[in-house]
Specification:
This protein is α+β, with helices and mostly antiparallel strands and about 90 residues long. The protein has a domain of about 60 residues. About 50% of the residues lie in helices and about 15% in strands. A two-stranded antiparallel ribbon has the order 1-2. It is elongated. The chain starts with about 20 loop residues before the first strand and ends in a 7-residue tail after the last helix.
């Protein structure tokens, strides 16, 4: 079976902090990667602004980049969960 491809990250948002951007929590002994509160607050601010008025193109791109990062982290979480729960069957 072909190994799964990682989601493609084109770039990181300019507002993405280089330190403290990702947190790791344990759920049932499995490490789960999440965006930090700082990143989650920025996403929430962009989404709230989007409800009131259209975002500037740079903000739209920033929000799109955060969505790509979320996809990437979700993939890593699925991969870690599947490997740790099924050590003999390392597929996603």
């Amino acid at each position: 079976m072909t190994p799964p491809l990682l989601p493609n990250l084109q770039s990181l948002p300019a507002t993405f902090p280089l330190e403290g951007a990702i947190s790791i929590e344990f759920q049932e002994g499995i490490p789960i990667f999440k965006a930090s509160n700082i990143v989650q607050n920025r996403i929430a601010a962009l989404l709230a602004k989007q409800q009131i008025s259209p975002l500037h193109p740079q903000e739209e791109q920033e929000l799109d980049s955060y969505e790509e990062i979320d996809d990437y982290l979700s993939f890593l979480n699925r991969l870690a969960r599947n490997i740790l729960q099924n050590p003999n069957n390392q597929t996603v």
